[in-house]
Amino acid sequence: MKFKQAIFSFIFFVVLITFGCSVNINVFNALVTVSPTDFDFGQIEVTTSSGAQTFIVTNDTESAETITDISITGADAGDFSAVPTGAGAWNVGAFGGTFSIDVTFTPLTLGAKTATLDITLTTVTLHVSLSGTGSTIAMFEIAPATPFDFGTALVNGSGVTQDFTVTNNGSQDLTLTNINLATGTDFTITAGGGAGPFTVTSGGGTYVITVQFLPLSSGAKTDTLHIEHDGSNVSSPFDGVLDGLGAAPEFNLIPDLTAYDFGDQFMASTTRKTFSIYNSGDSDLIISSIGLSNTTDYTYQGAATPFTVPANSTREFSVLFNPASVANNLTGNVTIQHNAGADRVVSCTGDGLALPAPIPIHSEDFQANDGGYSAYGISGGANSWQYGDPVSAPVNDHTPLDTRAVTLSTIVISLSMP
Q1: The model's pTM
Q2: Which domains does the chain have, with CATH numbers?
């Protein structure tokens, strides 16, 4: 396309010469342009610089151009500055070559400002109209920046709190209104919110908004902090995204019991039941206490509380039944307190049995003149046993040599030789 433009210009020039017309060299100059040709920087705080505006010089002729001067002229030239963005020589190549210039506006005083950007090339001088207004404005700045990540917070925990500070470095007071959250479910404004108006004084005044992240369930959470304001440096309203992750432990008792019967148990002996606590959640499960309502007949055996069960982990404990008395229905509750919801209670019961009474045993002498074994008697309830032949000697003539306590499963017989 650029080549065709060059050919057309050449043919047009030949036609003009052929018919004796004079040629104005500015026909070619029209193919050297700058864009945009004018620019308004708007209202800028006095002594504060605007963002840079880029102006692009384009050369659509068949000959390279050289920029010999870049200047700003006019009554308010001192409020504007121009800086070439390209390094090296200020050359603009033929057939579409370009060259960029950045201009900034820094008003030194209040009021409307105008100037002209002059770009002088080999064959032409280009002009750009510049304007802007120096003013006193309110400035809205907020920290920390958004989107803001609150990180991980425990469901039913104490939450995570963050202060957001609005600062006004402008020369007039800043007004804030309608400070709220889009949903307000998992995030809450605990201070600094409301309809307002709230004033942030000029010259560095601040206003603090406190937001708490307290998730109601596990998973990713999001909300938007909404603030309306009259600051001139950024658009209103401000809508900052807030993120966070809800995490919760999950309590599981294995076996999943609410009652357990230990059955019959002799006094002074012990039986046990072992339980496992499994955390199927995604944050630490805190076991704050494991208590027994009856510590006379039941004993807790396990880690001292409080203790932690990490996510996807298990800890064990045991309950021992050691009846201290002979009685039926010796009850006791095991109460487990934790941070994953309501306490877990397991009701225990068991019967205490008496130990069996000892069986009396008597020993008889084996006498030389008895001619045989002594009679041996054992009181065995409805049964009795005899070993050997009865002796004729009186009982009181026999000297006991050994007497032992016998359980139901044991019979001890003592014999003696003369």
Answers
A1: 0.50
A2: 2-135 (2.60.40.10), 141-247 (2.60.40.10), 251-353 (2.60.40.10), 356-418 (no CATH)
